[in-house]
Design goal:
This protein is α/β, with parallel strands linked by helices. It folds into two domains: 129 residues, Nucleoside Triphosphate Pyrophosphohydrolase (Alpha-Beta Complex); 155 residues, Rossmann fold (3-Layer(aba) Sandwich), CATH 3.40.50.1240. It contains eight helices and 13 strands. The strands form two sheets. Strands 1, 2, 3, 4, 5, 6 and 7 form a seven-stranded mixed β-sheet that branches. A hairpin with a 5-residue loop joins strand 5 and strand 6. The longest helix is centred in the middle third of the chain and has 16 residues. The chain is globular. The termini are far apart. The N terminus is likely disordered.
Length: 303
């Protein structure tokens, strides 16, 4: 007869990580790291810090464990397993392209190896890592391009001005804008667009200052313009999404983003995750030759 098993812990431990990849002559290579503490080969990952959202965790842990500069791509999957303590551990994984740097051995990871995806699937010490790698291999990652669509931050409801066009961000909205500057930067943000509303422009201003770039006005993507001509708004967002060479960010309003994305997803047979597109939230879209391939949602930049 087996021993008595106590109650499982209801605590959840959150972590983030990624599939590091780089172009190679035969397609792409991915990296596994060796952890001397466990003598295993795995995908880089680590636990979240208090108040940290998972994409930030994933990027921070990858950089800390490898020393490589990266650019996040699409979310791959979130896996879960039970720790010896009984707590449930959930790990979110993103694709992560290496853009610079060299591996630096450290206390957590003393070796890094690059290999084709099929070799990595066979070499990893964990079945869940193999599942994440299979998910990574299911899409032509080197052909995907990221488009970031942001709903403006909080702007309150008590605005003494007669013209709602000029309503500015409130204190929470300004905090969201500061947080978005970091988060959008992790995905390689380079070109910025905003509906011609003060709160939309202000949402991207901290990022514009960090990048030292201008914010291009997008009058077709305001709620009033969308109501008047939804086809023009839809066409404009898809045109921006088809651009390559830089990662574009578009900030618009709650009456515009959901219907445009629903139409785009229907056109390209993509299932959108359930999301309410709250103020300050981000859609991370992966596009291939102008066709929507995946859509991920970051609900709140403040965690």
């Amino acid at each position: 007869m087996g021993g008595r098993v106590g109650p499982r812990s209801s605590r959840t431990v959150w972590a983030g990580g990624g599939v590091l990849w780089r172009p190679s002559g035969s397609g792409v290579e991915v990296a596994l790291v060796h952890r001397p503490r466990y003598d295993d080969w795995s995908l880089p990952k680590g636990k979240s810090e208090p108040g940290e959202i998972l994409p930030v965790t994933a990027a921070r842990e990858i950089v800390e464990e490898t020393g490589l500069a990266i650019r996040l791509g699409h979310h791959l999957r979130t896996v879960r397993y039970r720790l010896p303590s009984g707590a449930c551990k959930k790990v979110g994984y993103w694709s992560a392209r290496v853009v610079d740097g060299r591996f630096r051995p450290n206390r957590e990871c003393d070796e890094l190896r690059w290999m084709p995806v099929d070799e990595a699937i066979a070499a990893t010490s964990y079945a869940l890592d193999a599942e994440v790698l299979h998910e990574f291999a299911s899409r032509p990652v080197s052909e995907l391009h990221t488009l970031l669509v942001v709903r403006h931050g909080w702007a309150g409801s008590r605005w003494p001005g007669a013209d709602d066009v000029s309503r500015p961000l409130d204190e929470v909205g300004r905090r969201q804008a500061d947080a978005l500057a970091q988060i959008l930067g992790l995905f390689g943000a380079g070109r910025l667009h905003a509906a011609d509303r003060t709160r939309c422009v202000q949402t991207l201003e901290p990022l514009a200052e960090r990048l030292d770039v201008a914010i291009r006005p997008e009058p077709a993507l305001s709620e009033e313009a969308f109501d008047a001509d939804p086809d023009a708004a839809h066409a404009r967002l898809r045109k921006i999404g088809a651009k390559t060479g830089s990662v574009h960010v578009v900030c618009s309003q709650g009456g515009v983003i959901p219907p445009i994305l629903e139409r785009w997803a229907d056109d390209d047979a993509v299932l959108l995750p359930a999301a309410r597109t709250e103020k300050g939230s981000v859609w991370v879209l992966s596009v291939r030759d102008g066709v929507l391939v995946t859509a991920d949602h970051i609900a709140d930049p403040l965690g």
